[in-house]
Amino acid sequence: MADRLRMVEAVRETLRAELERDDSVVVYGEDVGRAGGVFRATEGLLEAYPDRVFDSPVAEAGIVGVGVGLAATGLRPVAEIQFQSFLYQGFHQLAQHVARIRSRTRGTVTCPMTIRTPYGGGIHALELHSESFEAGFAHVPGLTVVVPASPAETAGLLTASVRSPDPVLFLEPTRLYRSFREEVPADHELPLGEARIVDSGEDLTIVAWGSMLRETLAATAELDVDIEVIDPRTISPLDTETIVESVRKTGRCVVVHEAPRTSGMAGEIISRITEGAFYYLEAPVERITGYDVPVPLFAREDAYLPDADQIEGGIRRVLENG
Amino acid sequence: MPREDIAQFTIRSVQVLAEDGTVDEDLAPSLSDDELLDCYEAMKRARRLDERAISLQRRGELGTYAPAIGQEAAQVGSAFAMDEDDWIVPSFREQSALMVRETPPQRILEYAMGMEEGADIPADEHALPPAIPVGTQPLHAAGVGWGEAIQESPNVALTYFGDGATSEGDVYEALNFAGVYGAQTVFLCQNNRYAISTRLEDQTAAETLAQKAIAAGIDGVRVDGNDVLGVYRIVSEAIERARDGDPTLVEALTYRRSMHTTSDDPSVYREAAEEDEWEARDPIVRFQVYLENRGLLDEETKATIDERVDSEIADAIDRANAARDELDPADMFRHVYAEQPPELERQAAAFERKGDSDG
């Protein structure tokens, strides 16, 4: 009984299913209750589960920090931070406590918390509503960082995140919230830490996630090249093996992300390719990324975001090289 | 619309046991003789641990340590007010309270020896590990108290922090969350007058720290933090209110008689005369006079208690040293995630081969 859902609906139906399945799940965040979230990702949940869905004060450190306590009492906090850049106000709680409490207590105190937050650009939002600080979060040991790229993937990965024994930061590309529908199976759970081979191919590997996967598929559809497209889905801990195996096969690779270039995930991924597939490479690995500038206000946003043309250019350069 | 007063607030201060050892009988909590002596012994144990820890650190056997000398009444009195299943959410100076909650001193020493084993907490202890970043843990206690309320459990969370922490935004967020959600939480601010070197008047223009509760819409009260009976009474009342979903901020006015940590030298920023003044107000001395006057404590009992806490702490030191000798460095890889991710497995294997060229 698969429904055709948009990504934002997949978030909502997954939360509804997890609230129904597990009494320990609590959902809270700014405007998630009566308003149903600014993107309506939690619409109707307060009415259905009035004792476990809460509007929270406007306090991101608080939203993240109380999760440590909720989890200690045996609950599974699922918090929403309204936009990713506002998580900077809660970053200290995330890095100092949520992500490290398991390690610092040798596994005796854990924090199975999910923090959902809309991220990335492309919806002409206000300043600081379009950030992709994914690599910064990926740099925090103990945290799992997930980025879904479609409605079905959202349902499968969010289900796994809520059920995970570890804290998960679930980054929802705002641009994809309402961009397309997809069949979403009921009770769909996908593994965390495992990449998906979106398209198999022999000539070149592309690694892309979130909204950039859509751009990548738009680019590859125009080309008569046998491309393997990999979506890591979990950017930390990263599934190195799937990527390295693919590059060993194709010898060529392009990594795409919306986040700024320097110290971005592409640097880490290419480093792992160098460690695991250097002698298989036919050409230098290319990265197509955002620029090392603050994400501009929306009048210049399209100039900032990598698009299908840039990805196509990267593919051509890697194919022509070597 | 004319000007009018629309809200008034007052902050009450309480003292039960005066500096001369006399007690306000109307306010005195009903503790049995045995409970009073247990309380005294807990304060002595805490003092002994701190003294030994400082000398161990000076000998190079312990890392940085934050003594609570002078704050034993605030910590022991409050911890005694808790029920068995209540939660303790400490900062990094709460060894006195933690030992009342039956945290073995060995664990406190292990943490100060730089071992995660010192924060290894059995689930039934209902404790969170020491929080190093100032003022971050009250939010965890708000979460615990809220979580218990959601689950309709009677358990209360008691969290400890200092005067400096009240300047952190997280502490206000914690008080505010607790108020909004009716969290079963008691916030105990030990105002020991100094945040490392920063005096209270440089920390805030607020007349009391208890009044920080007012903006969050919860109750605030001050108690003489060197009065173990007063702290016990006020925190007991706060805990009972918390069980009904009414959080309280308790300001225990005390004095950090020793250094902030073993890395600190208080002579740089305060006068010896001030320290002498507070030595005379020491919480253990005051309580001892009271117990002697009540005929509960004679020289023999004092000596027995001293010997017992001495040997307990000495044993704890031996056990912590033995644990350090068996420390497995590779343990750092084991608890980062519930299941070790492949990259971490690779790094752990490389660690085992450390020194090999392909590490």
UniProtKB/TrEMBL annotation, chain A:
Q: Which InterPro entries match?
A: THDP-binding (IPR029061), Transketo_C/PFOR_II (IPR009014), Transketolase-like_Pyr-bd (IPR005475), Transketolase_C (IPR033248)
Q: Which UniProt keywords apply?
A: Oxidoreductase, Pyruvate, Thiamine pyrophosphate
Biological processes, Gene Ontology terms: organic acid metabolic process; sulfur compound biosynthetic process
CDD domains per UniProt: TPP_PYR_E1-PDHc-beta_like
Which PANTHER family has this protein been placed in? PYRUVATE DEHYDROGENASE E1 COMPONENT BETA SUBUNIT, PYRUVATE DEHYDROGENASE E1 COMPONENT SUBUNIT BETA
Query: Which lineage ranks, top first, belong to the organism behind this chain?
Result: Archaea, Methanobacteriati, Methanobacteriota, Stenosarchaea group, Halobacteria
Organism whose genome encodes this protein: Natrialba taiwanensis DSM 12281
The organism sits in which domain of life? Archaea
**Per its UniProt record, what Gene3D superfamilies does this chain match?**
3.40.50.920, 3.40.50.970
Q: Which SUPFAM superfamilies match?
A: Thiamin diphosphate-binding fold (THDP-binding), TK C-terminal domain-like
Tell me where in this chain the Transketolase-like pyrimidine-binding domain is found: 5-179
Q: In Gene Ontology terms, what is one molecular function of this protein?
A: oxidoreductase activity
Protein known as: Pyruvate dehydrogenase
**Record-linked Pfam families:** Transket_pyr, Transketolase_C
The protein's required cofactor(s) are namely: thiamine diphosphate
Q: Does the keyword Oxidoreductase apply?
A: yes
Q: Does the keyword Oxidoreductase apply?
A: yes
From TrEMBL, chain B:
Q: Which UniProt keywords apply?
A: Oxidoreductase, Pyruvate
Molecular function in Gene Ontology: oxidoreductase activity, acting on the aldehyde or oxo group of donors, disulfide as acceptor
An example of a Pfam family matching this protein is: E1_dh
Domain of life the protein comes from: Archaea
**Alphabetically, which GO biological process terms does the record hold?**
branched-chain amino acid catabolic process; sulfur compound biosynthetic process
Domain Dehydrogenase E1 component intervals: 42-323
Q: Which InterPro entries match?
A: Alpha-ketoacid_DH_E1_comp, DH_E1, PdhA/BkdA, THDP-binding
Q: Which NCBIfam families match?
A: PDH_E1_alph_x
Spell out the protein name for this chain. Pyruvate dehydrogenase E1 component subunit alpha
Which species is this UniProt entry from?
Answer: Natrialba taiwanensis DSM 12281
